[in-house]
Specification:
Blueprint: H1 18-22, H2 24-34, H3 36-40, E1 52-56, H4 67-75, E2 79-81, H5 93-110, E3 114-119, H6 121-132, E4 137-143, H7 158-163, E5 187-192, E6 211-216, H8 227-239
Parallel strand pairs: 1-2, 1-3, 3-4, 4-5, 5-6
Keywords: Hydrolase
Organism: Gordonia asplenii
Protein name: Alpha/beta hydrolase
């Protein structure tokens, strides 16, 4: 548990402080550099056995931003896949249709369910897929995903998101998942109290025997490269 820090919004229900937001890029760079060796030489002894894993990038990012995650999982014997929809600019018709088709194709190729790993908005999409196509999904891992966002002011990305909202096939109803049932598959939600983009408590799921929350200490932009995050994700993929 973190000690009191005036930069951290302790309730976790309001957007992060501007200072934390400003530190996002430098902190992500530190995570990239400091974790290079551990990512290259994962210590786990549990191979992935070719399990398919579909990775979904966050808002304003693309498959490129999850390349470190995919390489890490590949070294452990998993078969990671890109989402192949370009830059994630929100729930456009092209992106959502393409993502559903992508999941269907991977599940068909492997003749079995697929694990989903979504970063930020990508995790919101992953949970939606799990509800729509339960038979094709085995496990959902969300990385700093505001799955319980109540209003846009809880995110520092709100201005950019609104700027492209005209492209979206539909608006995301807030609060997210307010009336949604629990996911029909096991899920793991990773969150950080030092997240500089979204209110950290919005990234937590309702705990249950099949839904867990795990706290880490890293920046929002660090999640796809942070060695602790990657190790936890790999461990949960092994379990499920």
């Amino acid at each position: 548990m973190l000690t009191f820090d005036p930069l951290i919004e302790q309730s976790g229900t309001r957007a992060p402080s501007p200072v934390l937001t400003g530190l996002e890029q430098p902190r992500a760079l530190v995570s990239m550099i400091s974790g290079a060796w551990s990512r290259r030489s994962p210590t786990t002894t549990h191979p992935g056995g070719g399990t398919p894993v579909l990775t979904i990038p966050g808002f304003g990012t693309s498959d490129l931003h999850l390349s470190v995650l995919r390489r890490y999982l590949q070294r452990l014997g998993y078969q990671p896949y890109r989402w192949n929809q370009g830059v994630n600019v929100g729930p456009t018709r092209h992106a959502m249709t393409g993502l559903r088709d992508r999941l269907n194709q991977i599940a068909s190729d492997h003749q079995g369910p697929v694990a989903l790993v979504g970063w930020s908005l990508g995790g919101v999409f992953a949970r939606e897929l799990a509800r729509e196509q339960t038979d094709h999904v085995r496990h959902v891992i969300t990385l700093a995903s505001p799955i319980r966002l109540e209003h846009h002011d809880q995110s520092r990305a709100r201005i950019a998101y609104r700027a492209v909202s005209a492209w979206h096939e539909r608006a995301l109803d807030l609060p997210l998942e307010a009336d949604a049932p629990a996911l029909p598959v096991p899920s793991t939600a990773l969150y950080s109290r030092t997240d500089g983009i979204v209110a950290w408590r919005t990234c937590m799921d309702v705990p249950s025997p099949t839904a867990e929350n795990i706290e880490v200490n890293c920046a929002h932009f660090s999640f796809p490269v942070d060695s602790q995050v990657l190790a936890i994700a790999a461990d949960r993929l092994r379990i499920h």
